Amino acid sequence: MKRIAVLGSTGSIGTSCLEVLDGLRDQMVLVGVSAHTRWQDLAAQTLDFEPRWAVLSDAGLADSVSTSAFASGTKLVYGADELSKLASHDDVDVVVAAIVGAAGLQSTVAAVEAGKTVAIANKETLVVAGPQVVELARKTGAKLLPVDSEHSAVFQAMQSGSKREVKRIVLTSSGGPFRGATREQLEAVTPDTALRHPTWEMGPKITIDSATLMNKALEVIEAKWLFDLEPEQIEVVVHPQSVVHSFVEFVDGSCIAQLSPPDMKLPIQYALTWPERMECPGPKMDWSSVWSLDFHPPDRDLFPALELGFEVARNGGTCGAVLNAANEVAVDRFLQGQLKFVDIPRVCRAVLDAHHFDPSPSLSELVRLDVWAREETTRWKSSRST
Ligand code: NAD
Ligand code: MG
User: Which pTM was predicted?
Assistant: First the structure.
């Protein structure tokens, strides 16, 4: 039995992951779960799966939690440090990194340090510290398996050839809810409209990232580190149906794609069962209906966040940590009504430009810069906002 710990088990990826694990009970056992604040959801998961550990990472909640709501065989522990202990525990084989944001960095690094197989949904870890994490995995023998649908598609398509035969990869993007919008329409975007994604149901942060195309920017950086590519080998194409999850183009011109309905259960399961494939609870393609697949280039002027991703992928060093932290705070401020939608890439640009670049920072330097970039973004006021 593979022993699985799901960090961020109450989120969108986390709950899909538990659905997948429900179908794999004969070969995998869920040994650990975690939530930040939603302890009732966490408690319900322990009743269903009876894992050995449940981590509530917001230690401040300890007094308000009703411990009797948890399975009696589950040990409930509090605080962010417990996430790293769980991620590196000897009795865990696979860690699903499904926490949102740089909050997932420490526990993901702990899993990699301990040589675990890491199913990585938490793309921010690779944006903040891609080279450090990849180098650490090389040393410890940890395996990094993509969960992000585009990267899972690339990972699957890569198996059609060898690494040196890869010419480039093409990441698909739905274009988000504002595909085809005018500049005036983008100026007026509210959190409500931005939270309505046309094809994917996801947590609020990645939903806003999908609307600004910052999600694709982060995915360009994620792909660079996961697949050891030059930024020039990564392209982005808008594909509104979200059925083709990405392509790999080989040197002979052959493009291999992976198709499935837009649902995360398949890429999550593939990371858990790889190199095998198994029956999956996700939806399947309906080939009996008439449908079409469209592709067109992204509008880089209207969605400047995308270019930031390529720039950060080219420059490396401290840029990823700064871009990620600025974006996390900017998204938060937008959701609270303090920034306009179009301010999100503007503040990221400004904070990136203001930071002291270091081409080869240590992990602790990146953590310090993350704090700095958050403060800068919190203070930032748009000269163009009304
Ligand atoms: P979500 O907001 O739905 O869930 C986040 C999870 O992280 C929850 O379990 C929450 O309790 C936990 N969490 C939040 N803040 C935390 C903190 N400070 N410390 C510890 N735990 C914390 O997010 P999501 O949509 O499931 O996304 C999770 C990750 O997966 C993100 O990195 C996202 O980019 C990536 N991802 C998500 C999807 C998707 O379809 N949702 C697709 C691809 C990649
Ligand atoms: Mg994705």
Answer: 0.98
